[in-house]
Design a protein that fits this description.
2 domains; about 45% helix; globular; binds cobalt (II) ion; Beta-carbonic Anhydrase, Chain A; alpha/beta; 5-stranded mixed beta sheet; about 15% strand; about 210 residues; 9 helices
Length: about 210
C-alpha cells in the first residue's frame, strides 16, 4: 500500500471512532470555531500543537513556520495573528520552539542554504543581540539550547511590537503572550518567557495612536 493511503484510512477510522465516542462532535464544530489559543510553532513534524498539548480540533488556531518566527514582513503570520486576535479574540498567544531545532542550528553556522538564508537571518539577529550571554556558555549544546530559548523570547517580544497586539492590549487587556520550548527527548514543554497584556517593552516600539 502506498504510504499516503494509510493517512486516508486512518482518517476514516478516526472520524468513525470520534462519532462513536461523541456523536455531536462534528456538528458542534461544523459552523463555528472558538479557539482560546493561537499557536505559533515550528514546522518540525515532531512538534504537533494538538498532540503535545492534549487538545482537540477547535481548541487551537495554528500557524507554523521554520523555527517559529514572528517576522513583521510575513503576510501569512500577520494575517493569522490579526484574525486570531481581532476576530477570534484568543486569550493566549503561544510561541512554541523546541530544543534541537534545525532552523536555529542552521542559523548558527556559516552555511549558505539558498532562499532560506533570508529567513534564518532573523535568528542570526537574535544571536547578535545575545551574543555575550550565549558565547559565555561552556558547551556547544548549552549554547544551542539557550539560543532556542532566546529565539522564542525574541519572537514573543516581536509579537508585542506589532500594532495588532498593542491595540488589543489597549482595547481588551489581552491576549497574554507565552514563550515555550518543547523538549524532543521527553515531550515536556518548558515555559521560558511571558508577557501579560500591558507589559512595558522598549519605548521605541510603543505606538501611541492606536
Ligand atoms: Co524547529
Amino acid at each position: 500500500m502506498e504510504s499516503y493511503k494509510r493517512l486516508l484510512l486512518n482518517n476514516k477510522a478516526w472520524a468513525e471512532d470520534t462519532v462513536q465516542r461523541d456523536p455531536e462532535f462534528f456538528h458542534r464544530l461544523e459552523n463555528v470555531q472558538r479557539p482560546e489559543f493561537l499557536w505559533i510553532g515550528c514546522s518540525d513534524s515532531r512538534v504537533p500543537a494538538n498532540e503535545i498539548t492534549g487538545t482537540q480540533p477547535g481548541e487551537i488556531f495554528v500557524h507554523r513556520n521554520i523555527a517559529n518566527m514572528v517576522v513583521h514582513t510575513d503576510l501569512n503570520l500577520l494575517s493569522v495573528l490579526q484574525y486570531a486576535v481581532e476576530f477570534l479574540k484568543v486569550k493566549h498567544v503561544i510561541v512554541c520552539g523546541h530544543y534541537g531545532c534545525g532552523g536555529v542550528q542552521a542559523a548558527m553556522t556559516h552555511q549558505s542554504l539558498g532562499i532560506i538564508n533570508k529567513w534564518l537571518r532573523n535568528i542570526k539577529d537574535v544571536y547578535r543581540l545575545h551574543q555575550a550571554e550565549v558565547d559565555a556558555l561552556p558547551t556547544e549544546q548549552e549554547r544551542f539550547d539557550r539560543m532556542v530559548e532566546l529565539n522564542v523570547q525574541e519572537q514573543v517580544m516581536d509579537l508585542a511590537k506589532t500594532s495588532i497586539i498593542q491595540r488589543s492590549w489597549a482595547e481588551r487587556g489581552g491576549p497574554h503572550l507565552h514563550g515555550w520550548v518543547y523538549r524532543l527527548s521527553d515531550g515536556i514543554i518548558k515555559n521560558v518567557f511571558e508577557m501579560e497584556a500591558g507589559t512595558e517593552l522598549d519605548p521605541i516600539y510603543r505606538f501611541d495612536n492606536l
